[in-house]
Amino acid sequence: MNTTPASQDLHTVRAFDDELAALDALLADMGRRVGDNLTQALAALDGRDRDRAQVISAADADVDALEQAVNETAVRLLALRQPVADDLRGIVAGLRCATMLERAGDYVAGAARRGLAEAAAPPGLSGASVQRMGRMVGDLLARAMRAYLDRDTESARAVWQADIEVDNVHSSLFRELLTYMMEDPRVIGVCSQLLFVAKNLERIGDQATNIAELACYRAGGETLGHTRPKHDLANYASVDVP
Amino acid sequence: MNTTPASQDLHTVRAFDDELAALDALLADMGRRVGDNLTQALAALDGRDRDRAQVISAADADVDALEQAVNETAVRLLALRQPVADDLRGIVAGLRCATMLERAGDYVAGAARRGLAEAAAPPGLSGASVQRMGRMVGDLLARAMRAYLDRDTESARAVWQADIEVDNVHSSLFRELLTYMMEDPRVIGVCSQLLFVAKNLERIGDQATNIAELACYRAGGETLGHTRPKHDLANYASVDVP
């Protein structure tokens, strides 16, 4: 076959696009797994299911392995293709997105592990609020990933704004748990674990906003910056003691 | 002046080395500021000093700005210099190191904010253990940064191993705080905040080990991987209720 320089260039461009798409596919896979693990973690918490919680903790190793794959792919692309402008920004964003997803995965696994301790909790304790908060951050993370993959800055901005609701739910859950502990010292151990489950969920929401920021950076170099509306009163929460 | 191609090359190499050194200087500055903020946060906790705690929370914005500067410098270097091998690895490591330091800075600011709530605590409560743990992670973070900047894999490995001691101190502090809460419901609010101060300190230790891993990656491409000895029993801690 007679390969002209022009068709070679075209070939190179196509191969590069394929490699960028492969990077996105790895990130999409990571995002899906973190979301699935979160769903499983909430079910384990709800059913006080120790075995399931242990499986999730193990499944986080797959998320870590995917992060490693993203890093290797990105570094290879940087070395071999020496990209500039949009492509360079896409690869740097990919590296950082993988870090955020790995971090979210850690918080999911942490919540599942806390669920092990929580397995002995009295039935019904704060279950509904934790579940609601968990579904909320799972939804935000999925939306952030879609915005990232679709380079959809409008959806990204909506995710970024919505995190304030997660902070509000977190603050009220924090107060609820403190009140339980004051009413009945026997639930102090369990509720302390649930404080951390709630905090981990809130931090998964933070990763969703970080990914939303990356979506904007990737799409146009815009930075939403560190001025995100933050409304987490749990840091300052106090409850009147009886 | 007559510039030969050879001296031009030399000039280019020197300029690139200068830029890499500038990237390291930004990271060193970030590390120093996070360490200083941690020292201030511990002093604020110890002295129950609300004003100082607020200053630290504000100082974290400088750390965030430095992270932004690292990102911009790294992307510019990638675009203009199109580095390969060691240099590429150094820049990618720099990007990730800045993320870890920003994260550590967040945990310091979080600990300081929790200290605001803690300002009403009864004197002496768990102060010594928190201070000891704080100094421990501050020391680990400083050692990790030195190992990173000096490309010293041996010191990096020592930091990576030492984090297990932080986990042990964290577990025992967690139990101590739960015991306080069970003995006296009036300290539940304050001790809940201290649980998070302790957790934030433990996570600063995690960032130190992450940076130690980057030091090895940067020096020789070696990954210490995700098999770090982890011994944090606080996730499972339970205390017998009276």
TrEMBL record, chains A, B:
Sorted alphabetically, which Gene3D superfamilies does this protein's record hold? Phosphate transport system protein phou homolog 2, domain 2 (1.20.58.220)
* Record-stated family: Belongs to the PhoU family.
Function (record text) = Plays a role in the regulation of phosphate uptake.
**What is the protein named?**
Phosphate-specific transport system accessory protein PhoU
Lineage: superkingdom: Bacteria
Tell me where in this chain the PhoU domain is found.
Answer: 28-112, 130-214
Q: What is its main location?
A: cytoplasm
Q: Which Pfam families match?
A: PhoU
> Known SUPFAM superfamilies for this protein?
PhoU-like (SSF109755)
Q: Self-association or partners: how does it assemble?
A: Homodimer.
Provide one Gene Ontology biological process annotation: intracellular phosphate ion homeostasis
Ranked from the top, the taxonomy reads: Bacteria, Pseudomonadati, Pseudomonadota, Alphaproteobacteria, Rhodospirillales
Q: Which UniProt keywords apply?
A: Cytoplasm, Phosphate transport, Transport
One GO cellular component assignment for this chain's record is:
cytoplasm
Q: NCBIfam families annotated for this entry?
A: phoU_full
Q: Where in the cell is it found?
A: Cytoplasm
